[in-house]
């Protein structure tokens, strides 16, 4: 559920067929992002910081819409609609299925910078199911 999303997450790994993301994943060394309550119940604010090669990049607050009926987060940036569907969310682990310009991706994030071998294997199983 969405209340469990609030707070800080560490990006662990991901797979994508969206060319800008494939390029980004190669150079991102570390990423952390935080969800905060938005101005109403259908909105979340997210802030993220990442290390790209040797440079730190901070993205200021982005507004994300919550589509409750299908457990999806939506973000519109320069007319490009990105959505992320919650595949799995518990208090420690977040697996999101992303669509950017209708191209599929999957990401694994966690409350700590390291995840267990079991969690990684579970994520890899999701990746295989989606054809990565």
From TrEMBL:
This is Alpha-1-acid glycoprotein. Keywords: Glycoprotein, Secreted, Signal. One of its GO terms (cellular component) is extracellular space. PANTHER family: ALPHA-1-ACID GLYCOPROTEIN (PTHR11967), ALPHA-1-ACID GLYCOPROTEIN 1 (PTHR11967:SF2). It comes from Haliaeetus albicilla (White-tailed sea-eagle). Pfam families: ApoM (PF11032). SUPFAM superfamilies: Lipocalins. The keyword Lipid biosynthesis does not apply. InterPro entries: ApoM, Calycin.
């Amino acid at each position: 559920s969405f209340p469990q999303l609030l707070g800080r997450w560490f990006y662990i790994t991901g797979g994508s067929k969206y060319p800008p993301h494939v390029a980004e994943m190669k150079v991102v060394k570390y990423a952390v992002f935080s969800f905060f309550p938005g101005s109403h119940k259908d909105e979340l604010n997210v802030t993220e910081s990442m290390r790209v090669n040797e440079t730190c990049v901070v993205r200021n607050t982005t507004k994300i819409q919550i589509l409750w009926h299908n457990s999806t987060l939506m973000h519109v940036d320069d007319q490009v609609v990105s959505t992320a569907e919650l595949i799995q969310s518990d208090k420690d682990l977040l697996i999101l299925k992303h669509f950017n310009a209708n191209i599929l991706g999957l990401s694994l994030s966690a409350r700590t910078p390291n995840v267990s071998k079991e969690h990684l294997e579970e994520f890899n199983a999701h990746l295989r199911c989606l054809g990565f």
